[in-house]
Amino acid sequence: MTTANAAMFQASSLNHRNARVQSLYRILFGVMTLMLIAPVMMILGTLIYKGGGVISWEFLFTAPTDGMRTGGVLPALLGTVWLVTVALLLSVPIGVFAAIYLSEYAGDNWFTRIINLAIINLAGVPSIVHALFGLGAFVIFFKFGTSILAASLTLAVMTMPVVIVATRESLQSVPPAFREACWNMGATRWQTIRKVVLPNSITGILTGVILEVSRTAGETAPIMFTGAVFFTPFLPQSVFDQTMALSLHLFVAATQVPGIAEEVPFGIALVLIGLVLLMNSASIAFRMWLRGKKKW
Amino acid sequence: MANSNAVPGATVARGGAGAFDRRDFDWYVDKAVQALVFLCGISAIVFVLGIFIFVFKEGVGFILHHMNVREFFLTPYWFPSDADAPEYGILALMAGTASVTGLAMLVAVPFSLGAAIYIAEFASGKTRETLKVLVELLAAIPSVVWGFIGLVIMNPLIIKWFDVPVGLCVLNAGIILGLMAAPIMTSIAEDALKAVPDRYREAAEAMGATRWQVTYKVVLPAAKNGLLGGVLLGVGRGFGETMAVLMATGHAVNIPDSVFDSVRALTATIAAELGETVVGGEHYQALFTIGILLFVVTFTVNLTADLIVRGIRKG
């Protein structure tokens, strides 16, 4: 081996400089990532520190007392459960079918593109505009009044894109060969979807549904004028009742109740964040388990 | 039973010209489902049209009978509940929304792009997975919780650090909105970076480029449109955010001189005032008119983002 060849494999000063630049940028971006995450972690820590003491079974399962200044969150928690359940009953079937259309039937053309654009817009229109829509359409035009039904319909329209996008991805991850094999057996399109495509993507769809639960539970603006109220002593009995909701309850407790015990709004915020993050973690865990299980 | 007709043997047994005529029960079920699925498929279009129609329907009365376009857009006086001469000028509200969104983007764009580059190009294995999960969880925190954080945590901090009388201001809302939009923009930007085929990276690395050179010279130019689209979607999010800006801006109609001024946003105005209005009244219709404006602007932003991401990708 000549000396010339050996020099070729030695790091030149240029290589060294490149490596230094590289590690500098690596550190820079690493720090940026940390600075994005760290403040939020500190904020969450503060919430837990200040509100953790108030959380108890009693806080979760009693009604507010003394003009909402003390007591628990039961009516708000139950109200959120009502709103989310009704919203899901409405949006999941439509969303899943819409995703089936987009994944299994629609061609790659301008019409599909318009549908996609509509989905992006449905997710991107400000939540307060959804609230105006809910008020104008469901409360006034369809005469549902301010009720769980009107609020849930508004939430359903708003969060449907979550289900559509998750379901479409899940359906598209089923290999085309599965479908082709089934068609070759003489099955119709629907038979193929029901017996082959859906069973192979059901867990992915569930992931999307859980994600939607979390989104729906946290929304405030869309329900403010359509069905959620600041305070009601009654628990909802049907979809035509008004209700309290956890998210709105936090807003009210933080801004509209003078003399409230300081830790109560922290407690409400913790319950809301806990609910939302629990749902999201479940969805993520589900997805990871699914990825490990996939056979193709 | 549904499947019995689908086996090839059954069809053949019928014989003759009808052998390929599959108009049996399953055929009708298939067609019915196809129609149902199509209806659900276009529901997104129906809903978007519905939003526009109903918001327009409630607000159009104001546009036709009460609105003075010049006064509406160019005066900063918003006194809708003045009994004698209510004034509807949204200049200050627009300034509030613009200042808060602008500051939020100043905070969020560099950090989310940096984080996205780190997650997509530098981190690997467990670190990447953990960071991705964390970013996703951060994106899930509801906006009312962010508003609460602005109100009870940021507010005293700003008063203490900057020695100002009120901590509910452009700075507070901008930081809150930035922290809120950053995780969403990070995931979109990371998707855009992931969409660049690995063979681009491999080709550059084979030429002896370092990871940073690959990122800077190859991946970023290739992902440019996706990143721009992500930033635009983030702008749309910030612009339309309601609860957080309602709680963190201080909610004072004001054209801001500094980041420590309280302002009021378009979205927050609707949220705060709609409850007090009379259905069909002038004030009520004026708020719906703001809603029309919000809808049109976010629609345009989303459309532009979509055109940038898709249109150029095809060309």
TrEMBL record, chain A:
Membrane-crossing segments per the record: 27-49, 76-102, 114-142, 148-166, 267-290
Full protein name: Phosphate transport system permease protein PstA
Keywords: Cell membrane, Membrane, Transmembrane, Transmembrane helix, Transport
Gene3D superfamilies: MetI-like
SUPFAM superfamilies per UniProt: MetI-like
Cellular component, GO annotation: plasma membrane
Start and end residues of each ABC transmembrane type-1 domain: 77-283
Membrane topology, from the record: Multi-pass membrane protein
Signal peptide (UniProt feature, chain positions): none
Family of the protein in this entry: Belongs to the binding-protein-dependent transport system permease family. CysTW subfamily.
A single BP term in Gene Ontology: phosphate ion transmembrane transport
Name of the gene encoding the protein in the UniProt record: pstA
One function term, GO molecular function aspect: phosphate transmembrane transporter activity
Subcellular location: Cell inner membrane; Cell membrane
Pfam families to which the protein is assigned, alphabetical: BPD_transp_1 (PF00528)
Automatic annotation (TrEMBL), chain B:
Name this polypeptide is given: Phosphate transport system permease protein
Superkingdom of source: Bacteria
Cellular compartments annotated: Cell inner membrane; Cell membrane
Protein task: Part of the binding-protein-dependent transport system for phosphate; probably responsible for the translocation of the substrate across the membrane.
GO terms of biological process kind: phosphate ion transport
Membrane topology term: Multi-pass membrane protein
CDD domains: TM_PBP2
PANTHER family assigned: PHOSPHATE TRANSPORT SYSTEM PERMEASE PROTEIN PST, PHOSPHATE TRANSPORT SYSTEM PERMEASE PROTEIN PSTC
Molecular function per GO: phosphate transmembrane transporter activity
Protein source organism: Candidatus Accumulibacter meliphilus
Signal peptide: none
Residues that span the membrane, as ranges: 32-56, 88-113, 133-154, 166-189, 286-309
Domain ABC transmembrane type-1: 94-305
GO CC term (a single one): plasma membrane
Principal subcellular localization: membrane
